[in-house]
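User: I'm new to structure prediction. If I give you an amino acid sequence, what do you actually give back? Let's try with this one:
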Amino acid sequence: KPPVVTLVRRSDGRVRFLVRENLEDVDEEIVEYGDEDDPAILCTDQYSIYDGIDESDEIDDHLVINHDDHYVIGGAHTNSCGNRHSFLRSWLRRFRDISKHHL
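Assistant: Good question. You get back a string of structure tokens that encode the predicted 3D arrangement of the chain. For your 103 residues, that looks like this:
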């Protein structure tokens, strides 16, 4: 299954789902989708697939939320992304008999 990266822009709550075979160059899309005036801060859970995304010079920080210890670091959390994924799964459920190729 290819990874899905969920981007939630903090200023207006807009969402973008990125489906990629790998996460090479995803840092460029993260920065492009973000707000021009705010620094790009990557906030993820501890899943190792995100390691290395923050190596871009344009991503200012990478906060890793370890859900065994805490769910929030300052004002940063992954709850918005999890929420958007639940909406996406509900919406996709109605297409269960359609080939993924056609979605």
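You can read the tokens as a compact description of the fold. Here is one thing that stands out. Helices lie at 26-33, 79-93.
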